[in-house]
Amino acid sequence: MYCYMARQPILDAQKNLYGYELLFRDGESNAFPNINDDEATSKLITEHHLLMGVEKITGGQLAFINFSADTLIHHFPTSINPKSMVIEILETVPISSELMTACKQLHGMGYQLALDDHDFDPKWDIFLPYISIIKVDVQQFNLLQISKYVSRVRHYNVTLLAEKVETAEEFNKLRQLGFQLFQGYFFARPEMLKHKNISSSKLNLMLLIAEASKVELNFDDLSQIVERDLGLSYKLLRFVNSASFAREKPIGSLKHAMVYMGEAELKKFIALLALANLSENNGSELLNMSVVRARFCDQLAALNQDELNPPSAFLTGLFSLVDALLEQPLAGLLQDLPILPEIKSALLEHRGKLGQYLELAKAFERADWESQQQLTRQTLNKAVDLSPVYLEAVDWAHGLMLTAREEDKV
Question: What is the DSSP letter of 218?
Answer without folding.
Answer: -
